[in-house]
Amino acid sequence: MAATEKEGSALGPLLQAALALPILVVPVRAGAAEVGEMGFTLLGYKERGLMKVTEPILWGHARIGEDWEIAASAAVDIITGASPQVVTNVGGKPVQTISGASISERRLTSDVKVGRHFGDFTLSASHTSSREHDYLSTASGLEGRLDLNDRLTTITAGYGRSDDRVRSHDDPTLDQPRTTNEYLIGVSQVLSPVAVVQSTLTTARGHGWYNDPYKFTLTFYPEGGAPAFLPDLRPSQRNTWAWTTRYRHHFPATHMTLQAEYRYYHDDWGIDAHTLEVALHHALTERFALRPALRYYTQSAADFYSPTIPKPAPAVLSSDQRLGAFGGLSPSLRATVRLDNGLRIEGTAGYVHNARTLHFGGSGSEAFQTLRAVYGILGISREF
């Protein structure tokens, strides 16, 4: 399954969260040469009537001596089910037609990140690879982190580049490149002994093949005549900007921590998106904690999104509803248990509801069909 099939899906943020294994600044224990954590995470995701994803992930991070940090992960995506393939108005109203054949895919991915401390400055290098039969991707990056003001302020800057190849099991001749350069700058500030804020700006410049080889548009015209049929046709470049701000505030008297996050996204395809998540981490005991959360997402439609083909047919057009205007709500609940032997067990259950009626500022794209999905994440880890 090409990466374009995953872009904008409800699963994307979940996979990113499960695979997000940043190098952590772990306090070095007296006399210890190494300190870190290893774990295993199993992610499951199921859309009503559509895709099902199972993803086992093995991960770890460690600080070696005073100067070195390393983090790594490996995962397998096991994807089954059906996928929307054609948007047609044969019944008078544009609707998605589900592919007849059941999809069965596997994606192998791995990443590693190594960091070196130079006093208050840390330089890190990373490499990621992902392989499936119709999509190949490799990415590398550099990141610098500078601690200031007795580590109360941290400034981060980074650069990454990905080189991808888009293929299709329906078209053996398809083998198209896509390259993306991404830049990041961010700052973290400790506001008080119980509050911290982090804000990050990222921009990406991409060019190459963005068409989804598995999506098509079929339009019948009221006045009659031959219907129009088009494959997915998108611009050959995509420039994106994103601003993310996170705030944490701990309330010692109640053993609760407020976690709030806002993300604004804009690209030159015409999409503006807002994500707001609020969570409350509650340490009920020294060993057990709960974290209820609620996420809201809304986006505008891409300039070239249309569920029907106008006359004359444009040079770029996509009926992929993930490029339409819609909104979504996703409540979740995470439970964490720490055992005497040093094991930590985490379980998360969540629900995803995307609909045009949840679009902020009015109804979204009329042809958007409501998506409902459930997901669960189970993880076990141990510090060493």
Characterize the structure shown.
By secondary structure, the protein is mainly β. Helix content is 2%, strand content 62%. It is built from one helix and 20 strands. The chain has one helix spanning 11-19; strands at 34-47, 51-64, 68-81, 84-88, 95-98, 103-118, 121-132, 135-148, 153-167, 175-192, 195-208, 216-219, 228-231, 237-251, 256-267, 272-283, 288-299, 326-338, 343-355, 371-383. A 16-stranded antiparallel β-barrel has the order 1-2-3-6-7-8-9-10-11-14-15-16-17-18-19-20. Strands 5-4-12-13 form a four-stranded mixed β-sheet, with no helix packed on it. Strand 6 (103-118) and strand 7 form a beta hairpin. The longest helix is centred in the first third of the chain and has 9 residues, at 11-19. It is globular, with a radius of gyration of 22 Å. It starts with 10 loop residues before the first helix and ends with a strand. The model is unreliable at 1-33 (pLDDT under 50).
Features of this protein?
384 residues, disordered N terminus, mainly beta, globular, 2% helix, four-stranded mixed beta sheet, 20 strands
Summary?
The chain is mainly β.
Average per-residue pLDDT, rounded, comes to: 90
Question: Oligomeric state of the chains?
Answer: single chain
Strand order of the largest sheet: 1-2-3-6-7-8-9-10-11-14-15-16-17-18-19-20
Q: Kindly state the percentage of residues in helix.
A: under 10%
State the total count of DSSP E strands.
Answer: 20
**Separation, N- and C-terminal Cα atoms:** 38 Å
Structural Rg:
22 Å
DSSP helical segment count: 1
Overall structural class, as computed from helix and strand content, comes to mainly beta
Output the helix-strand order.
HEEEEEEEEEEEEEEEEEEEE
Shape: globular
Pick out the low-confidence regions: 1-33
Largest sheet: 16 strands, antiparallel, barrel
Percent range for β-strand residues = over 45%
